[in-house]
Amino acid sequence: MRLAGKRAILLAVLLLAGVMWDPGPGRAQGKAARVAVDAVAIEPLTQTVPALGRFVARQSGPVAALVGGPVAEVLVEVGDRVAKGDVMVRLSTDSSLGQRNLREAELHEEEAALETARAQARLASLELRRLESLKKSAAFSQARYEDKLTEVARYDSEVAEAVAAVIRADANLRLAELDLERADIQAPYNGVVTVLQATEGAYVNTGAPVVTLVNDESLEIEADVSAERLSALTPGLDVSARLDDGRQFTASVRAVIPTENALTRTRPVRFTPHIDQMDGVRLATDQSVSVLLPIGEPRPVVSVHKDAVIARGTGYIVFVVIDGKATPRPVRLGEATGPRMEVLSGLMAGDLVVVRGNERLLPGQPVKYDSPEAPGGNG
Asked: Which residue range forms the structural domain that includes residue 200?
């Protein structure tokens, strides 16, 4: 029993030694790891307060029928994405086509009447010139000459009336052709069909809504901001915004709307989001978003790129590159400023930290990297 106890103690010591032995330092002297680095920088930090906003479409609403008529064909469904100019609903063209043909016939009729009036005016003008050539002759008749003057004036007036009739008939023909074209109800902008009011066989009146569209490619943020925060929101100012899933992006102040809610003492502010920063994110109208409004003056802080920060236990570390080797260093962090974090302690401006490839690094492991393009870059 005494020998078995000694063996158990010896086995426990060996196991403890195996646990405490770290092969990392030995391996850390091996092949250098390829990483990306970024420089710790000093940049201004502005304290912010969140304001709840929502995405609104700059283009949305019902598309109306420009002419009346029965619906011949519905070419879209709710949820379909359409491009500007796509035909969504087609009305019956039987009546419009008949009107167009009638107006074309009226135009031809008025053109023929114009040619007749012009021919009569030319003949009267020739007769008038012939009479004028006889003024010094005994065959000249003053009464006949005056009658011919009156006749020429009458024919000139008839020509003018015929010209006006042709213009009127041509305008009517163009209106009929326009009504024929408007039988195809087209999308006025890119968007998604959200409501379909038209059904095949139903009659729609001029101005009746047939399809409701929302352009989700042109969204803005609207947030109600208290009056004391408005002075800092000048058009063009960039602010940070955050979706419910935590993703952040930048938005610019476009306009402060001069209408105030008497109950909340807030005014709506429109922000233009930088959608290019949100690749793959599908946004929707009325989707909630938090806008981080600036308060107070900016203050300079030491900042590190968020990709350099690794959570360890209850704290954080970053790998600092010193003499070509990765050295872990605990840091204390403050507020976020875009893609960077305020550093309260642990780093100095100019320190090179690993921002990519740091998850598999070992303490003291050699690293290879390209120099960052500029302090604060992503390497």
From this structure: 70-91+183-215
